[in-house]
Amino acid sequence: MLLLQFSTSHYCRKARLALGYKGLAYQVRNLTPGLHALQLRPLTGLTTVPVLLPQIAGQPEFIADSSHIFRYLERYQPDPPLFLSNPEHQHQAELLEDWLDESIGTATRFVYYHFRAGEGKALDPSLPSQIVINIVRAQYGINAASVALAEERLALALRVLAPWQDRPYLCSDQISIADVTAAALLSPLARIPDYRDNYPWLFQRIGEIHQQCREPLPPGLEASKGDL
After folding, report:
1. Residue 194 has pLDDT above 90, yes or no
2. What separation in angstroms does the CA of 72 have from each of 12, 65, 183?
3. pTM for the whole thing?
């Protein structure tokens, strides 16, 4: 299997967590933002990552979108499961995944790139890094007003996910697509001190899910992995 991705994308991290949890061998190909469209549009008709190429006879040529990748992997290799056997719990997990994808993942992107362009510039002040950051900010319209709205969305998300403080999984007594999605899409916040200091339980859970999925800890958590 081959995963086409941006190395820094939290949506691609979501796909890697699922692949790791399933114990599937795969390789990654890191695409160049901007030029990636020339590679993806003829293949999928889209310009978004991740895209999974199973490279297995009898399987689809490609699966685009992290949610579709979840569903493909569950069909291809049901064990260990990411989908819950209880229909009510699975429905809750699907609702959380969709909300995190469509609202909270975007909010994380806005807050993270705003931080990296300002207070967090010292994390990598190199010209190539700052060029990418400024391209992303321009592409998505990241400014003070949009970041303020994103911060409100994240505050709501942290209230909704607060039960994660007291139990290892969000929707049942086992890992689900909701846990994997939350762990991936909120992981960039680990590099922002205000979030790291105020929500230690969140990063505890993010670290646990990464370990369960055999995925290296995200930037900002490596130094404290002994505490996870």
Report:
1. yes
2. 15, 11, 20
3. 0.91
CA angle 218, 222, 227 (to 5 degrees): 115
Radius of gyration of the chain (CA): 17
Q: How do 2-5 and 63-64 pair as beta strands?
A: unpaired
SS3 63: strand
Calpha distance 36→38 (Å, rounded)? 5
Which one, of 24, 5, 28, lies nearest residue 82 by Cα?
24
Alpha helices in the chain (DSSP H): 10-22, 36-44, 66-76, 87-99, 105-117, 127-140, 144-160, 177-185, 193-198, 200-212
Residue 144: predicted pLDDT:
93
Burial (CB < 10 A; 0-12, 13-18, 19+), residue 114, is: buried
